[in-house]
Design goal:
The complex is a heterodimer of chains A (815) and B (156).
Chain A: E1 4-5, E2 19-24, H1 28-31, H2 36-44, E3 49-55, H3 61-73, E4 78-83, H4 86-99, E5 107-111, H5 113-117, H6 124-143, E6 151-154, E7 158-162, H7 166-177, E8 181-185, E9 200-201, E10 206-207, H8 208-221, E11 225-228, E12 231-239, E13 242-249, H9 263-267, E14 271-273, E15 282-284, E16 286-287, E17 299-300, H10 316-320, E18 333-339, E19 341-344, E20 348-350, E21 367-369, H11 370-377, E22 398-405, H12 420-434, E23 439-444, H13 454-463, E24 467-470, E25 475-478, E26 485-491, E27 496-502, E28 504-509, E29 511-513, H14 517-524, E30 551-553, H15 563-583, E31 585-588, E32 593-595, H16 605-609, E33 615-617, E34 624-626, H17 636-640, E35 646-648, H18 653-663, E36 672-677, H19 681-690, E37 699-704, H20 712-720, E38 725-730, H21 741-758, E39 766-770, H22 776-790, H23 795-804, H24 811-814
Parallel strand pairs in A: 2-3, 2-4, 4-5, 7-8, 7-19, 8-11, 19-30, 21-28, 22-23, 22-28, 23-24, 36-37, 36-38, 38-39
Antiparallel strand pairs in A: 1-6, 6-31, 9-10, 12-13, 13-18, 14-15, 16-17, 20-29, 25-26, 26-27, 32-35, 33-34
Helix pairs in contact in A: 2-6, 3-4, 6-18, 7-8, 7-15, 11-12, 12-13, 19-22
Chain B: H1 3-7, H2 12-15, H3 23-27, H4 29-33, H5 39-49, H6 68-72, H7 79-92, H8 98-110, H9 116-125, H10 136-145, H11 148-152
Helix pairs in contact in B: 8-10
Classes of the chains: A alpha/beta (815), B mainly alpha (156).
Bound molecules: flavin-adenine dinucleotide and iron/sulfur cluster (SF4) (4 copies).
The site of one iron/sulfur cluster has 13 residues of chain A, from β22 and α12.
Chain lengths: 815, 156
C-alpha cells in the first residue's frame, strides 16, 4: 500500500511571517532563574514577531488556549514556545497549533529549561542572556519554517515478543487475547525465565512455578501465539508498523511428538551441570530443562552429545524412544517474520560473585548464591527441598545472608538490584517455616522494603527472630576442618566488632543486564542507560516506550524489578503496542530529503552515504531521487551534497544558517555553537538539565535529527561568523539511530580538522563528541572543558579564523 | 595544614559517597586487635564533626596503611590517603608517637630509617658491599624546606 498524504491543516503562511512567541515560567523552574518578562519583551523586538507573552504554564490547558486564541486573533502564521525540551512537549504544542488551523510544522521551540535555567541555576543573568539567544535562534528558524504534509503508513497487525520470561509471556498473552498474532521468541529450550527457578515469590509467598506454569501452558497453546524456542533474532529491518525480522531457530533434534516420558534420558551416557538447578545437579545430553517446561519436549545438547557433525557414535536415545521422535537430521532454520510492533523482554543475568574474593564463593563450598538457595529449597530441586550444606549434605543450624552482593558498588553494579532485600527476607521465612530452630543472621547496609506488603513480610521475619545486623562482613574465613565459615566485621549499630561462626552463607546477589544485551541493542537501535539496561523514552511518562517508535520494553530488561512490576510493565507494553496495531496506521514525521533536479548533477555522492539505500539515480533524467517512504530523515545526504541540491524538509540549510546567524549575533567569541542530534546528544543535554548538573552558559544548541545532518558548511559558517568554538555531537558510533550515518559525521569533522590545521588554526576549536541520552554528566563536562578552552582562544585567533572562512559567509557579506 | 587542606587532596564528594556499610572496618586488621576507631568511624567523624577530635586520638597511628579498606570498599573510597593526611595534621599538633618521631629524626640525621651500623655488620657477614652513601644535606634540606622540622619541632 503506498503511503497516502494526509491533510493536516489549511493555513499556509503568507509572505510575511507573523510570529507569536510564548515564554513559559514553568512555575519557578524557569521563572526562578530566568527573567521571563525580559525574554518576552526581547522577543517582541525581533523581526517578524507580532505577538509575545509570558505564561505561568504554557503546556496547561489555559496556556494552550492562549496560543490558539492568538493564532486566530493575531493572525499568527508561526508559533514559538520557549519552555522545556521539544522532546517533551513538542507534540503537545504542535497539536494545539493544528487545532487552531496552523500547520504543526510552523511551530518551533526554544529549550530554556533543560538547556538553560536548570543548568545555570546560580547565574540568573547569564541564564537570561542565554534564554534570549535561544529565543532569537528559534524565531530566526521559525521565520523560515514551511508547512509540511505528513505521511501515514499501515501497521502490520502482528507483534514480535523477544524473551519468554514472565514479562514476555504476559505481554504475549495480552496481545494474543486482543486478537493480534504474536511471535514469542525465546532463546532457551523452554519459556519461563527466572521465575520458573524461584521457589516462592515475595511478598505473598506463592509457589512460583504453581502460578507461572498455567500461564506458560496457555502461551504454549494459544492459537494466536507462535512459540519459537531455541530461537534468536538475527536482524531487523524497516520501521514502525513495518518490521521485517529474521529469526534463527536452532534445531532441537526431538520432534513435537515427544511425550516427555523421559526414557531417552536414562540411557544417555553424557552428563553436564544442570543450568536450571544453577549447577547444583546434573543433566544428560538429552534432557528437558524442568518438569513444567513449555514446550514439553526434550532437547539434545549437541555440544555434549557424542554424535558430532553428522557422525553417529551413539544411538542410545534413538533406541530408547518408543515414539520415535529423535531426529538428528534436523537443521537450523531461518525464519522471516513481518511484524508491526516489537516488545523486548529479555530479562536479566544474575551477578556472579566469584570476583569478590574476600567472600570465597567457589572456593568455599558452603558459600552459595541466593539463586542456588532457591533451587536448594525448592521441592523440585536437587535436594528435594531439603536445605543442606553443599559440602556434607548436613542441615545447617546457623545461616548467614549477606546483602547487596554485586549491587550498589562501584566495584560491580552501581544500582540497587531492587529484589534482593525482599528475597532474603522471604528466604529467611522459608527456612524458619521448615527448620524453626535455625539461627539466621542477615548482614545488611540498608533494608529496602518499599513495596506493597513488603514491610509486613519484614516484620514477620523479625518476629521469627531473624537477626538483622547492620554492617557487611569484611571477609569470610573457612575452617578447613569443619568447613564452617567465620564472618568478621563491625556491628555498626552497637559499635562492636563481631566474629561469627556459621554453617552456611548465602550471598544475596544482584541482577544485571544480559551479558549480550549489546547485540540486541544494535539490532533494534535501542539506547541503554549508564547501568546498561535498555532505556525508556521518558522515565516517567513513557516508561515502556523506547526512543525507536514501535519498540517497547517489558520486565527486567528495562531495569531490576520483581515479578509484579514485570507483569505490570508487560501489560503496559502490550497495551502500547496494541494501540498502534488496532489503529492500523501510523503517521510518520515529514522530515525527509528532497532532491532539486535543477541543481543535482547526478554525481551520486548522496547515494553512497544514505544508510537506508533510499536514493537512486533516475536513469532517464540522470539526477538523484529519494524514496520518501523509506527515507528516515537523517539528512546525511544533504550534508554530503556539495551542490546544495538536497533539501531536508523541516531541517533546511536556510533554517540552520539562520540559527547560526542568530547565535553569533552578539559576542560570538564567547559562544560554542553546538550541533546536537535529537536522539542521543540533545537528549543527553536534556538529561544534564533534568539532573540539574551545572555547566557554563556558553553553549548555543542547534538540534538536528542526526549528527550526519551537519554539513561542513555549517561549521565553516559558524567560524566565519566569529564563533569561539563549535561542537558537533551525536550518538556513540554503534548507537546511531540512522544505522551508521554518524560515521559520515566523523569523516567530515576529520576533514575540517585537517583543513584547519592546514590554515594554521587550532583544530581544538572544533570538537566532535559522542554523548548518549544517559550521559548528562558527560555532556556537562564537555561543556565545562570547552568553556575553559574558550578562555584561552585569543581575539587574534578568532580574527584569523574569520578571515580563513570569510568566503563561506555568502556573497553579500564577503564583499 | 588544616583539614580543609587535607581534603583538598580528595574529591570531597567522593568521601561523602560512603554509605556506612562497614566493610572497611570489618576488613581492617587493626580494628580486630585494639581499640582503633576503624576506617569507617574515622571517616564519619571527619565528615560530621570535623577532624579536630580525630587528630587528637593517639590510636590514629595504629593504621598500617595496608589499604585493605580501600580495596574492599564498595565505593572505592581512598581512606588510607585520608588517614595519611590526618596523621600529617596530627603530627603538627604534637600527636605523634615517640617511636615514630624517633625514626623521623633518624632520617633527618642519617638519611635512613634503619640503624646503619647494624645493617653494615649484617652485610659484611654475607659479603655484601657497604651501603652507598647518601647526601644527608640534601635530605635535610628537603625536610627543612617542606617545613618538616618546624612542624615536628625537631632541632637540626
Ligand atoms: C534469586 C532471585 C530470586 C527472586 N525472587 C523473587 C521473588 O521472590 N518475588 C519476585 O517478585 N521476584 C523475584 N525475583 C525477580 C524475578 O525473577 C524477576 O522479576 C522476573 O524473573 C523478571 O522476568 P523477565 O521476564 O523480565 O526476565 P527473565 O525471567 O530473566 O526472563 C527473560 C527470558 O528472556 C530470554 N532471553 C534473554 N535474552 C534473549 C534473547 N536475546 N533472545 C531471546 N530470548 C532471550 C531468557 O532465556 C529468559 O527466558 C527474583 C530474582 C532472583 C534472581
Ligand atoms: S535490594 Fe537490598 S540487598 Fe538488593 S541491592 Fe538493594 S539494598 Fe542491596
Ligand atoms: S541519507 Fe538520510 S535523509 Fe537522505 S535519503 Fe537517506 S535516509 Fe533520507
Ligand atoms: S589502611 Fe589503615 S584503616 Fe585501612 S584497613 Fe589498613 S590499617 Fe585499617
Ligand atoms: S567500606 Fe567504604 S562505603 Fe563502606 S563504610 Fe567503609 S568507607 Fe564507607
Amino acid at each position: 500500500m503506498p503511503p497516502k498524504h494526509r491533510k493536516i491543516a489549511t493555513t499556509t503562511p503568507g509572505k510575511d511571517p507573523r510570529i507569536g512567541v510564548f515564554v513559559c515560567h514553568c512555575g519557578l523552574n524557569i521563572g526562578g532563574t530566568v527573567d521571563v518578562d525580559k525574554v518576552a519583551e526581547y522577543a517582541a523586538s525581533l523581526p517578524g514577531v507580532v505577538f509575545s507573552a509570558a505564561n505561568l504554564y504554557t503546556c496547561s490547558q489555559p496556556g494552550q488556549e492562549e496560543i490558539k486564541k492568538a493564532i486566530v486573533e493575531q493572525g499568527l502564521n508561526r508559533v514559538v514556545v520557549a519552555s522545556c525540551s521539544p522532546r517533551l512537549h513538542e507534540p503537545t504544542f504542535r497539536k494545539a497549533c493544528a487545532e487552531a488551523g496552523l500547520n504543526p510544522y510552523l511551530f518551533e521551540m526554544a529549550n530554556i529549561r533543560e538547556h538553560c535555567s536548570w543548568v545555570h541555576l546560580h547565574d540568573p543573568e547569564a541564564a537570561t542572556m542565554k534564554a534570549m539567544d535561544l529565543v532569537g535562534m528559534a524565531v530566526a528558524r521559525a521565520r523560515l519554517l514551511e508547512p509540511q504534509k505528513e505521511i501515514t503508513v499501515p501497521v502490520t497487525k502482528s507483534a514480535l515478543v523477544i524473551g519468554g520470561g514472565v514479562a514476555g509471556i504476559q505481554a504475549s498473552l495480552d496481545l494474543a487475547d486482543s486478537g493480534f498474532k504474536v511471535y514469542l521468541v525465546e532463546r532457551s529450550a523452554s519459556i519461563g525465565g527466572h521465575m520458573a527457578q524461584i521457589d516462592k515469590t515475595f511478598p505473598t509467598m506463592d509457589c512460583s512455578i504453581c502460578i507461572l506454569a498455567p500461564k506458560m501452558a496457555e502461551a504454549g497453546r494459544h492459537p494466536n501465539i507462535e512459540l519459537l524456542t531455541m530461537s534468536e533474532v538475527e536482524h531487523v529491518d524497516g520501521y514502525v508498523g513495518n518490521f521485517t525480522v529474521k529469526v534463527r531457530k536452532r534445531p532441537r533434534f526431538v520432534s513435537d511428538e515427544c511425550t516427555a516420558c523421559g526414557d531417552c534420558t536414562h540411557d544417555c551416557p553424557q552428563i553436564a551441570p544442570d543450568e536450571f538447578n544453577a549447577g547444583l545437579s546434573t543433566r544428560k545430553a538429552i534432557y528437558i530443562p524442568f518438569a513444567q517446561a513449555v514446550p514439553s519436549t526434550y532437547v539434545i545438547d549437541l555440544d555434549l552429545c557424542l554424535n558430532k557433525e553428522g557422525i553417529m557414535a551413539c544411538d542410545k536415545c534413538l533406541q530408547a524412544c518408543k515414539a520415535r521422535c529423535i531426529q538428528f537430521s534436523q537443521k537450523e532454520e531461518t525464519l522471516q517474520l513481518q511484524v508491526g510492533t516489537i516488545i523486548v523482554a529479555t530479562g536479566v543475568d544474575v551477578y556472579d560473585p566469584t570476583s569478590l574474593t574476600e567472600y570465597g564463593y567457589r572456593r568455599f563450598p558452603n558459600v552459595i548464591t541466593s539463586l542456588e538457595f532457591e533451587r536448594l529449597i525448592n521441592a523440585g530441586g536437587p535436594s528435594q527441598g531439603n536445605l543442606i550444606r553443599p559440602y556434607d549434605q548436613t542441615v545447617p543450624k546457623k545461616v548467614a545472608f549477606l546483602q547487596c552482593i554485586g549491587s550498589r558498588s562501584t566495584r560491580s553494579n552501581k544500582y540497587c538490584s531492587n529484589i534482593c532485600c525482599m528475597n532474603t527476607i522471604k528466604d529467611s521465612l522459608l527456612i524458619k517455616e521448615h527448620w524453626p530452630e535455625t539461627e539466621i543472621k542477615v548482614f545488611y547496609i540498608d533494608i529496602r522494603a518499599f513495596g506493597k506488603g513488603f514491610e509486613d513480610l519484614y516484620r514477620r521475619s523479625r518476629r521469627e527472630g531473624v537477626e538483622f545486623i547492620r554492617g557487611i562482613p569484611g571477609e569470610i574465613i573457612e575452617d578447613p576442618e569443619t568447613r564452617d565459615l567465620i564472618l568478621i566485621g563491625e556491628n555498626m549499630l552497637l559499635g562492636e566488632w563481631y566474629k561469627y561462626q556459621v554453617d552456611m552463607v548465602i550471598l544475596s546477589v544482584g541482577i544485571e543486564p544480559r551479558h549480550d544485551s549489546r547485540r540486541l541493542q544494535q539490532i533494534l537501535n535501542l539506547s541503554t542507560g549508564q547501568d546498561g539496561f535498555y532505556l525508556e523514552a521518558h522515565p516517567k511518562l513513557r516508561p515502556v516506550d523506547t526512543a525507536s517508535s514501535g519498540i517497547f520494553l517489558a520486565g527486567c530488561a528495562e531495569g531490576p524489578k520483581d515479578v509484579k512490576d514485570s507483569v505490570t510493565q508487560a501489560s503496559a507494553a502490550a497495551a502500547r503496542a496494541g494501540i498502534l496495531m488496532s489503529r492500523g496506521e501510523v503517521t510518520i514525521e515529514a522530515i525527509t530529503a528532497r532532491v532539486d533536479p535543477e541543481i543535482c548533477t547526478g554525481c551520486g555522492m548522496c547515494i553512497k552515504v544514505c544508510p537506508y539505500h533510499s536514493i537512486y539515480k533516475d536513469e532517464e533524467t540522470g539526477v538523484a531521487r529519494v524514496v520518501e517512504a523509506s527515507c528516515a530523515g537523517c539528512g546525511t545526504c544533504a550534508a554530503e551534497c556539495q551542490f546544495g541540491a538536497i533539501k531536508m524538509l523541516h531541517f533546511s540549510d536556510e533554517q540552520i544558517y539562520a540559527q547560526i546567524d542568530s547565535a553569533t549575533d552578539n559576542e560570538p567569541e564567547k559562544k560554542i555553537v553546538s550541533f546536537c542530534c535529537n536522539w542521543c546528544s540533545y537528549a543527553g543535554a536534556d538529561f544534564a538539565g533534568v539532573s540539574r548538573i551545572q555547566y557554563p552558559p556558553s553553549a548555543r544548541i542547534i538540534r538536528t535529527m542526526c549528527s550526519g545532518r551537519v554539513s561542513p558548511g555549517f561549521v565553516r559558517y559558524a567560524f566565519a561568523r566569529g564563533a569561539g568554538a563549535v561542537l558537533v555531537s551525536g550518538c556513540h558510533p554503534a548507537d546511531c539511530h540512522y544505522i551508521n550515518a554518524n560515521m559520515q559525521t566523523e569523516k567530515r569533522i576529520r576533514r575540517i580538522h585537517k583543513e584547519m590545521r592546514r590554515n594554521g588554526l587550532n583544530p581544538e576549536r572544533l570538537q566532535l563528541a559522542w554523548v548518549s541520552a544517559a550521559e548528562g554528566q558527560r555532556f556537562a563536562s564537555i561543556m565545562e572543558k570547552m568553556a575553559d578552552f574558550l578562555k584561552r582562544v585569543s581575539p587574534e585567533e578568532i580574527r584569523k579564523t574569520k578571515e580563513v572562512y570569510r568566503k563561506y559567509l555568502g556573497e553579500e557579506a564577503a564583499q | 595544614m588544616t583539614v580543609q587542606k587535607v581534603w583538598s587532596l580528595f574529591d570531597r564528594s567522593q568521601l561523602y559517597e560512603c554509605y556506612e556499610c562497614s566493610k572497611c572496618s570489618g576488613s581492617c586488621p587493626v580494628t580486630l586487635a585494639g581499640d582503633f576507631l576503624g576506617p569507617r568511624k574515622i571517616l564519619l567523624k571527619c565528615l560530621q564533626h570535623g577532624s579536630g577530635r580525630v587528630i587528637r586520638d593517639p590510636l590514629l597511628w595504629y593504621c598500617t596503611t595496608c589499604q585493605v579498606c580501600q580495596d574492599r570498599c564498595p565505593q572505592e573510597i581512598n581512606i588510607p590517603e585520608l588517614l595519611t593526611g590526618l596523621r600529617n595534621k596530627a603530627a603538627k599538633i604534637g600527636n605523634i608517637p615517640e617511636r615514630v618521631k624517633f625514626t623521623v629524626e633518624k632520617i633527618a640525621k642519617t638519611g635512613r630509617s634503619v640503624l646503619g651500623f647494624k645493617v653494615e655488620r649484617e652485610r659484611k657477614r654475607y659479603n655484601l658491599p657497604p651501603v652507598v652513601e647518601i647526601s644527608k644535606e640534601e635530605i635535610s634540606k628537603i625536610l627543612a624546606e617542606t617545613g618538616f622540622f618546624k612542624d615536628l619541632k625537631i632541632d637540626h
